[in-house]
Design goal:
405 residues, alpha/beta, Urease, subunit C, domain 1, TIM Barrel, 2 domains, 8-stranded parallel beta sheet, 31% helix, binds zinc ion
């Protein structure tokens, strides 16, 4: 009798333990983005613990499961401007949550050429925001686009000339200090005085250098690559309208094997032929898509004052009528997935590579960017028809952070 009681007691404990373990493992089912076949992912402690392939759909779920999107160039979202004078930690939280709704699980808040003290102030705010547990997992670091870029019209794009500066290592350290060492990407013009030694120091400090908003010659671009630059910021944009057909900054960056370009594939910053050419030249393994979205993205079309600029938001793009330039994009990076598939006929696998796996690899974010055992449970669930994506759910570190219903 006693033995029977003890056995029952032990069995009860065993069942409870199993149940508890089961509760701590969440699972999601759908179809794998690589092959469209059924898959169930189990999460444990925020990471993917099992990838179970089944013959039949589980619970009829036919939503695609893909690694969450990673946007390395985004200026703001839903009215929150990372370069604006009113940035707060709360505002960064708001932007992050809005980005979850469009499938972005990680992003690099990007600060553009602005008043130096404002850049510094905003990096300090971003560094504080990163420490907020709720959103910290979605912000691996920051992108500083400028102020060490070309002051020349066309090349500087919509960046204000008066805030462009000559490269200064001391200044950069000041910004990096304010950012608590979280600037992981900087866009620099290689032709500026002192740019090449500056690039070398930045690279040696572990920060990625991307060439952008510049009119560098082939030899200046080569020098920058030799100094460690490995990316080109929004290739084909941040460039004057009238350029020499032989000698211009686009060819040397396109032909340089060591450079991975980022492309704004929103359907407006680059035309179909440019996207196709850049994609064919660099390939899906060496291309990264970015939204370059402005804070106006997600807001109703109209005129907006941003800092010292009057901007015009159309349903598709943000214009800077003052200098007849594009000021940034109005769509999140999920739009880039749709556009690149439409323009190049690439597979969903390649589109996700360019919007998730490649940026993760480029910045050694080895815990995300793939559906793989041990990787973080950063997953986006969506349906797709006629190259249009409909985001259904988003998970960060195994937690559901957005659900359409
Ligand atoms: Zn730019």
């Amino acid at each position: 009798m006693k033995i029977a009681l003890i056995s029952t007691f032990l069995i009860t404990i065993l069942i409870q333990t199993t149940t508890n373990q089961m509760n701590s493992i969440d699972s999601i089912s759908g179809v794998h983005y690589l092959d469209g076949k059924p898959v169930t992912l189990e999460f444990d402690d925020g990471n993917i613990s099992e990838i179970i392939r089944t013959k039949e759909l589980v619970k009829n779920s036919s939503w695609f499961l893909a690694p969450g999107l990673i946007d390395i160039q985004i200026n703001g979202y839903m009215g929150v401007d990372f370069s604006g004078p009113n940035l707060t930690v709360e505002a960064v939280k708001k932007a992050t949550k809005a980005l979850w709704r469009v499938g972005v699980t990680s992003y690099f808040p990007t600060i553009i050429t602005s008043d130096f003290s404002l850049i510094k102030k905003n990096f300090a705010i971003l560094a504080k925001a990163m420490e907020v547990k709720e959103i910290g997992n979605s912000i691996p670091g920051f992108h500083l686009e400028g102020p060490y870029i070309s002051p020349i019209d066309g090349y500087r794009g919509a960046h204000l000339k008066k805030y462009t500066r000559k490269p200064s290592w001391e200044e950069f350290l000041e910004l990096q200090n304010a950012a608590k060492n979280n600037i992981i990407l900087i866009t620099v013009a290689p032709e500026l005085d002192g740019a090449i030694p500056f690039i070398k120091k930045i690279v040696d400090s572990g920060v990625m250098v991307s060439l952008g908003h510049h009119n560098g010659s082939a030899s200046q671009i080569k020098d920058a690559v030799n100094a460690g630059a490995r990316m080109a910021t929004h290739l084909g944009n941040g460039c004057a309208n009238m350029i020499n057909r032989h000698n211009n900054p686009i060819w040397p960056q396109l032909s340089e094997d060591l450079i991975t370009p980022s492309l704004i594939a929103d359907g407006f910053h680059l035309n179909r032929e440019e996207i196709r050419t850049f994609y064919k030249t660099k390939g899906a393994d060496n291309t990264i898509l970015v939204s370059d979205a402005l804070d106006l993205a997600g807001l109703p079309p109209g005129e907006y004052i941003r800092g010292e600029r009057k901007l015009l938001l159309t349903p598709n793009v943000v214009k800077f009528p003052g200098i007849n330039a594009l000021a940034g994009a109005a769509s999140p990076i999920s739009k880039c997935v749709e556009v690149v598939m439409d323009f190049t006929n690439c597979s969903l696998e390649d589109a996700i590579k360019m919007t998730s796996s490649n940026p993760a690899k480029m910045f050694s974010l080895n815990d995300r960017g793939l559906i793989k055992k041990g990787r973080r449970g950063d997953i986006v669930m969506f349906t797709m028809s006629d190259n249009k994506i409909d985001i259904k759910k988003t998970f960060v570190a195994g937690k559901e952070v957005y659900s359409l219903d």
